[in-house]
Amino acid sequence: MNDIRNQVAVIDGLRAPTIVLQNARYLHSVFRDWRHGNIWIAEDRIVYVGDELPQNTKNTEIIDMTGKTIVPGYIEPHVHPHQLYNPVSFARYAMKTGTSTMLCDNLAMFLALQNKKAFSMMDRWKTLPTQLYWWVRFDSQTQLEHEHDVFSMENVLEWIERPDVLMGGEVTGWPRLMAGDDEMLYWIQAAKLKGKKIEAHLPGASEKTLAKMRLFGANGDHEAITVDDVEKRLNQGYAVTLRYSSIRPDLPNILKDIVEKGWNIFHHLMMTTDGSTPMFHEDGVMDKCIRAALAAGVTPIDAYNMASYNVAKYYGVSNLHGMIATGRFATLNVLTDEFTPVPEAVMAKGQWMVRDGEEVFDWPEERFEEFAPLALDFELHESDFQFSIPFGIQLVNDVITKPYSVNLHLNKQAVVQNEDECYLMLIDKFGKWHVNTFLKGFAKNVQGFASTYSTTGDVILIGKSIEAMMQAFNEVKKLGGGIVLIENEQVIASIPLTVGGLMSDLPMEQLIEQEKELIAKLRERGFDKGDAIYSLLFLQSTHLPYIRITPKGLYDVMKKNILLPAMMRE
């Protein structure tokens, strides 16, 4: 209440604003035009936009913006903030190019932490200049042994109650909903009663499926691959978010097709990088989407609104974000012109983050104390490496798999070199069980590879050599989690993931270099798919066809049955 009184006092001249941006050319998101005026800022809020200048300017920073263009801070509406990076490292990196508000997936925290610890971390992050909002998941994306204990009524409803949770979903488990899962339907309705949007996950869905999911409560979907998919979703009343990601870079072509068709629908569209892996972000985050939109022929105003105002309005936070107007957070990007979305200067909540292209804000150190260090307190033995199953998993592309018949000469030490097949193991992070099969299409000459980066946080082992796979396991054990590639008893590439075995604590810039090295080494050894990190992540993901390795065992997604159960370890 005192903040409001102080803000009004600035208008009355009783107090001075902290910053005035004078002679500003700025985007008015509602009028959809470029306006000229003065922007008064008091602490973290805009308190006036117009022709007037304040009466009281004692200690006010007054900056002449003549020749510059100002737009609202960019909003990323669909972030998976655990793709090797962590929420804070990604937020800091994204801020440098103007993305200052993010709507984040809670799955990694939900599976790894009790709600009390997750909420403590989220509350601490409210002091950051980046505004972090959250989703609440309704399903795990895989086959967990005790999913109902993790996704309990109590746990999910506690997330729904939080005001910083703006979205339910993404609903990857929608076939369960269709099949009569009333618990999931209850959660969707509970979230909607609290004003949350429901995000579907409907790749390749028919019109009838889209219609049914809309009736079940879905508000939006981000799985359009073509302009026809966009039309189908808009016809059923969905909000559509277009992807420009490391595995689905569909945005440019879809926007070109929309422009060619002359559809006036940009007010109903949003954009996302959809949890891309670090290397994809080397040239930006939402600024990268805006560049792609401009190159596709989208007008600058529509391009910027898709990355700011449209998101804020859809999620019900346009009173705080997405426009340059009174009462909103003073979160702004200063541009050379509207055709150059990488800002010269970035302001978030009234604080300068970037000036003249250089970071000027001193970010607090984040220790992630809520995440216990990953302790793999067990040893692997030769008896764990029994591979007798007559079929395995074949990677069709980055993320789609199919079963295949195994026809290899096997021995205790290696699969035949230069064949496109490897051993594949999923090992419980507590050492209780394992699943053994074969993987075709990952790489031709990988001796030993280990990763604690997975959907469930369990350990994935891949390789030609059992001895090298065991060494790779021991190396990630030493690191306290990570990804390791072994050859001739040497570590030739690694990414330490010291935050719960899932995320790096390094700045994005360093993490990008580590990922580049790993991917280069994998490509030298025959990896020819698009995104190896997503290939690892989706080996367990049962929302994609056709066969997955899960904590319950080898799982047939289409038939919904276990082909090979997990084996308990001795």
Automatic annotation (TrEMBL):
Its EC number is 3.5.4.2. Keywords: Hydrolase. Pfam families: Adenine_deam_C (PF13382), Amidohydro_1 (PF01979). It catalyses: adenine + H2O + H(+) = hypoxanthine + NH4(+). One of its GO terms (molecular function) is adenine deaminase activity. This is adenine deaminase. Residues 399-560 form the Adenine deaminase C-terminal domain. Residues 69-352 form the Amidohydrolase-related domain. InterPro entries: Adenine_deam_C, Amidohydro-rel, Metal-dep_hydrolase_composite, Metal_Hydrolase. Belongs to the metallo-dependent hydrolases superfamily. Adenine deaminase family.
